[in-house]
Amino acid sequence: MYFVLIFDADNTLWDTNSVFHQAHVAMLEVFETAQLLSNARQQVEKVRAIDRALIQHFGRFEYGFKNLVTAIAHHYHDGVDPSVAAARALEGDYRALNATLRTTIETAYQVHTDTLAQIPPLLASVAETLVHLRAYRKIHPHVATFIFSEGHPDRLEKTLTSHQIRQHDYFDEIVIELKTAESFQRIGKLGRQYLAVPHGHDVMTIMIGDSMQRDIRLANAAGFTTVYIPGGFEGRQLPQTELDQPDFQIESFVELPSILASLGLSLPVV
Question: pTM for the full model?
Answer without folding.
Answer: 0.88
